[in-house]
Amino acid sequence: MHIPDGFLAPTITLPAYAISAPLWVWAARKHFGPNQVEALPAVGALTAVAFVLQTIMIPVPGGTSTHLIGAALLALAQGPLVAFVCESLVLLVQALFFGAGGITALGVNALAMGLLGPLCAWLVFRGLRRASPRLAALLAAYLGMQVSTLAVALTLGLQHHLSPAIFPTPFPVMIAAMMLPSLTVAGIVEGLYTMLALRLLERVRGKAAS
Amino acid sequence: MKLGPRASRLLLAAWFAACFVFSAITDPIWLAALQIAIALVFWKQAPAAARRTALSAVPLTLFLILASWGWVRFVAHQTPDLRAYAALALRASLIAFTSFAVLARVDLLAALAPWPTLMRLLVIILGQVHALRLLVSESLLGLRSRLPRKPRALDVVRDAGGLTATLLTLASKNARDISDAMRSRGF
Q1: Domain ranges of chain B
Q2: Which of A107, B50, B71, B144 is the most buried (most CB within 10 A)?
Q3: Pairwise CA distance, residues A25 & A155, whole Å
Q4: Which residues of chain A have a pLDDT value below 70?
């Protein structure tokens, strides 16, 4: 789902950085500033778990594969701002050391996969958790995944509209290619995984508290 | 030999700016020329960087380009702009190659020394990523050995919940250990 380097021009990547950078600073200061130095190990651990989850590939009909994001779980367990910082760090590590995603597209990827999707998941979960926490978690993660994918597809569509020489694939083709696997496979898997993992985390926390 | 902290920071800043400049170039000839120029500048790092680019960025980019080209050609019944696709592939590989070459030349930890929090976080994450990837491989092996058939996507998802709880518990413990060790050494 990550947008690699070279797929977007600076007309999109620079404004995305301009939006992301203050948010990174604000979120990092709010949750992981000098006074919260004890939070660093937790951030590192959560980030690493999200990273590892993204390496679990799910086969999609047609010979391709998609992967979990894990950001919805972070948002539901720790809040959307923590999820944003952790997901951004995952994307940074992937871009720097593993060649996945990209350094120029980091701002766009972080906004789409780290902020919009997890924020949507968090809002849906807060709205529905009283009715049924499990169903709320499943639906929240499913919708969060769709929002992230849609944001990525819209960005690529905008790039094609602004300059087809940079990104030659038209928007209808892009949105179909991205949304079909997300709606039919990846979203459901992310929802099921988030629901099960959240339940287990609550059980572990309950045991630790008692 | 790795560069010193100040030179590393300057090279990182130049690389960051260059990536944005490269991402705006649409002429395949210019992109190919730049690829050769970067390979000459970083000739010592070039073989390793080329290998890493071929293993990471190239397959994904080629797959995305072929899929896009196929959709445009056979589903949308339009003629794909091959020059634009060639430029896309060259741009993606140029940026990946430059990134790997520069990162092999700089001393990242020394360059990040003025920001100890960021350095600690990076060390913790990279240490954790390595440990957790090993754990995931072992867990998947365990899952395969428990099932009489090849695990399907649903089996992996069902197991992922339990795996995450184990991963989080282990990761928190390890991360705290690494962080305490680094803090006690003055980071």
Answers
A1: 5-109, 115-184
A2: A107
A3: 23
A4: 32-46, 55-66, 204-210
